[in-house]
Amino acid sequence: MQALPRLSVERWPLFPVRRQGGPGRPLVVGSRGEVVYRGCWDATASPVADWRWGNRIRNAEGNRERTIRMAEAEETMTIMGKEIPRRDFLIYGSAGMGALGAALAAWPFVDSMNPAADTLALATTEVNIGSVQEGQSITVTWQGKPVFVRHRTAKEIEMARGVDVGTLRDPQADDVRVQKEQWLILVGICTHLGCIPLGQKSGEPRGEFGGWFCPCHGSHYDTAGRARKGPAPRNLAVPPYKFVDDTTILIG
């Protein structure tokens, strides 16, 4: 440790003296200008007072040196074999605890934003298609929307795949709209103004292209659910779905 400079003493008023208006206030200051001791008593200058002041100066200097040595010893600390500044440890530790506290406080709010179990249950619909015969359709509900499930015939599949995709207003090939060619799953909402097209039940009009017909404004859809005539700008939407097994579809 670097040697500390000796203390210097401000000579006025080093020795307590009587002054008009009140007692003197002797100061002991370090070489850097810091006040080491500030005393006050009422006495006249004398050898005894000088001796007392000398002891006070020496004691103050010794205390200062011990304080600095203790501070230097505490500047670093060893963690996992590495010396790190104690100040950095305290700063980072405090910041980490603050971040942890904020995360714990925010967790109930974040968790409340997750959907409830009953809401998640409504997000999917499981459909048993084992009893749907070729050429038949059923309508199920998914998220409040009608979903058409049709078991297509070989003729309907042939009609859907024989279309020149380049002539369609919303070009989509049939094979990108189905996972299994005989099963067509569509959201049963007309893409014009949201009416429900006809064609699910036997005897209902199915339009000029053998698929579905919207009675509201005369849109026609083919056997792949693609818009072919009328004001509908897009094909009937295909919802997300997967085959759980050969007779079960999970929509959503």
TrEMBL record:
Name recorded for this polypeptide: Ubiquinol-cytochrome c reductase iron-sulfur subunit
Species classification: Bacteria, Pseudomonadati, Pseudomonadota, Alphaproteobacteria, Rhodospirillales
Cofactor, free-text remark: Binds 1 [2Fe-2S] cluster per subunit.
Enzyme Commission numbers on file: 7.1.1.8
CDD domains in UniProt: Rieske_cytochrome_bc1
Function: Component of the ubiquinol-cytochrome c reductase complex (complex III or cytochrome b-c1 complex), which is a respiratory chain that generates an electrochemical potential coupled to ATP synthesis.
Subunit-structure text: The main subunits of complex b-c1 are: cytochrome b, cytochrome c1 and the Rieske protein.
Catalytic activity: a quinol + 2 Fe(III)-[cytochrome c](out) = a quinone + 2 Fe(II)-[cytochrome c](out) + 2 H(+)(out)
Similarity remark: Belongs to the Rieske iron-sulfur protein family.
Transmembrane segments: 89-110
Protein's membrane topology: Single-pass membrane protein
Keywords, ordered alphabetically: 2Fe-2S, Cell membrane, Disulfide bond, Electron transport, Iron, Iron-sulfur, Membrane, Metal-binding, Oxidoreductase, Translocase, Transmembrane, Transmembrane helix, Transport
